[in-house]
Amino acid sequence: MKLDGNSAVVTGGASGLGAATARALAAQGVKVAIFDLNAEQGEAVAAEIGGVFCAVNVTDDASVDAGFEKARAAHGQERILINCAGTGNAFKTASRHRETGKISHFPIEEFDRIIQINLVGTFRCVAKSAAGMLTLDVQEDGERGVIVNTASVAAEDGQMGQAAYSASKAAVVGVTLPIARDLMSEAIRVNTILPGIFNTPLMNAAPDNVKEALAASVPHPKRLGNPAEYASLAVEMCRNGYFNGEDVRLDGAIRMAPR
């Protein structure tokens, strides 16, 4: 797809992978709208790249609709959607406390929360963005639009406590090909990236010894991923017109251990 002059929406664009992608797209001449809940960081990134910030909760229909309305008023209908909004938690399915013997299970409301954000929130933005893309003409390069979703290596090798997170990300992987097939006759492509362990703000909060141990577990290169490397792949998935229906790990060849 021709990038220069087109419009994009990046969910979760206020920090981490989303912010890096917003910057990378803007550097290619794309007009970027950032969807996020963090207004302070979102406004800062938008000002930096000449974009627009939209306060959006991806679990809420009205909030997402309002975000797309604001983004399109500023930049026109987007041809690019990058979904980076997401979160995680950690609870064992069922467990026994070593000292007290008390038995507990995964809080069902926490399982549902992760599914609603990571899976339903992603699909909500995909469906609404794709519907908007259908109003556009096909470009000279044969493209009408492109969508890139974010899963995780946990979709394939989730660790202890990651039942909800792994389920949500595996589902994002699972819907990639069906959505690509749904939209194939409309010249809209869909791909998904499965990042490994990346040096995001969330990871920055971890102690140095934890980050060093995680970096050492990556086969090669033995370091955490750089958000710019995610952004580079996302941009290539937009640019390369033959990239469609794919789920690609970006992880330094790591395979996550049980814990």
UniProtKB/TrEMBL annotation:
Organism in which the protein naturally occurs: Brevundimonas guildfordensis
Assigned protein family: Belongs to the short-chain dehydrogenases/reductases (SDR) family.
Origin: domain of life: Bacteria
Keyword Repeat belongs to the record: no
Entry-linked Gene3D superfamilies: NAD(P)-binding Rossmann-like Domain
Official protein name in the record: SDR family NAD(P)-dependent oxidoreductase
Keyword RNA-binding in annotation: no
Cross-referenced InterPro entries: NAD(P)-bd_dom_sf (IPR036291), Sc_DH/Rdtase_CS (IPR020904), SDR_fam (IPR002347)
Annotated signal peptide: none
UniProt keywords, alphabetically: Oxidoreductase
